[in-house]
Amino acid sequence: MKEIKGNVFNIQKYSVHDGHGIRTIVFLKGCPLRCEWCSNPESQSTYPEIMLTAESCCGCGSCYEVCKTGAIRPDSVKWLRNKCVLCRKCADVCPTEARTVAGTYMTVSEVREVVMQDSIFYRTSKGGVTFSGGEPLMQSEFVTELAKSIKKDYVRLAAETTGCVSWNQSEGPLSMMDEILYDIKHMDSGIHRQLTGVGNELILENAEKAAKLPGDFVVRIPVIGGKNSDEENICRTGVFAEKIGAKEVHLLPYHRFGESKYRKIGRTYTCEAYTPDDEQMQRLKKLVEESGVPCRIGG
Ligand code: SF4
Ligand code: SF4
Ligand code: SF4
Questions:
Q1: Which atom from ligand 3 is nearest to the alpha carbon of 31?
Q2: Which ligand number lies closest to the CA of residue 72?
Q3: What is the pTM of this model?
């Protein structure tokens, strides 16, 4: 039988974020949102894409020689994305990794082999494997099969989700998770749409259902200074989290770590937000705690 494949853009080992203990994070391509502040813009498209780090190019010309579509110009660092057919040849021959591909189709067994290399660390630290993205539940069938194959070795699982996927696609994989890290960006649907391109109705509806599943349900709020960091929004999110029975709320302060990736995929970073200082974060944490749900700063 043909094995199902997922489009994976990174497998990050030894992470101490996004779940308990030492974790391996499997990043999957595709996201229904378009957050202005996204630090993984290469995760948004469901398709693989070429990333070009111009500073790493040594000018060897190998990519120009192998590209048969005319996408790459002779000076190599200027190229025409609309002519690219994603054959990957330029990335294969690039000696400096100036050209790489974000997104590789991998089977369940291939990903399982990589993540199980660290099973000893999962056991000793009560860690495990986290599915992230993008939105991992856009590849629901793949996540379900991979989760089954890992869980049978008693590895703890977590999923980081936007909640913006139909409940039909979400329920199966989320039911297998020991931790559900559930992002809520804004409680007002109109503002949510302005910030992310979609309203929040489905997200809030799914949150109530996901909170009833066996895994620990954690609400995560990326705190984007000047966008969703006002006390009213954080307070409303805390009240909602308490009402649906969230175990904890995590506040994640905005950063610009992903900015350089926009250039690499030919886009411009447009988010004009500020990083909330420690004093503001502590104030917001206190507000959430006043809603009756434990809160911490960071993932
Ligand atoms: S992936 Fe293929 S078509 Fe696209 S730029 Fe590289 S060599 Fe050319
Ligand atoms: S193969 Fe890589 S290093 Fe060589 S010219 Fe192309 S991008 Fe630059
Ligand atoms: S939900 Fe996450 S991955 Fe998707 S666009 Fe927003 S920040 Fe990026």
A1: 4
A2: 1
A3: 0.95
Residue nearest atom 4 in ligand 2 by C-alpha distance: 60
Q: What's the gap in Å between 133 CA and the centre of ligand 3?
A: 8
CATH no. for 49-101: 3.30.70.20
| pLDDT single digits (tens) 236-279 | 999 999 999 999 999 999 999 899 999 999 999 999 999 999 99
Domain ranges in the chain are 5-46+103-297, 49-101
Question: How far apart are the two ends of the chain, measured CA to CA in Å?
Answer: 39
- DSSP characters over 254-266: ---TTHHHHHHTT
Q: What is the pLDDT of residue 76?
A: 59
| Mutational pocket test of ligand 2: of 64, 93, 96, 100, the residue with most ligand atoms within 8 Å of the beta carbon | 96
Residue 123 burial class via C-beta count within 10 angstroms: exposed 0-12, middle 13-18, buried 19 and up:
middle
Number of neighbouring beta carbons within 10 Å of residue 34: 12
Homologous superfamily (CATH) for 5-46+103-297? Aldolase class I (3.20.20.70)
**Measured in angstroms, how far is the CA atom of residue 36 from the centroid of ligand 3?**
9
Give the H/E segment covering residue 202.
helix 201-210
Beta strands in 56-173 (DSSP E): 99-102, 104-107, 128-132, 156-161
Q: CA-to-CA distance for 125 and 21, rounded, in angstroms?
A: 5
Determine the atom of ligand 2 nearest the C-alpha atom of 59.
5
Give me the mean pLDDT over the 281-288 stretch: 98
Residues lining ligand 3, judged by CB closer than 6 Å? 31, 33-35, 38, 40, 43-44, 133-134, 162
Any idea what DSSP says for residue 3? P
- Residues 102-157: tens digit of each pLDDT: 999 999 999 999 999 999 999 999 999 999 999 999 999 999 999 999 999 999 99
Determine contact, residues 65/78, Cβ cutoff 8 Å.
no
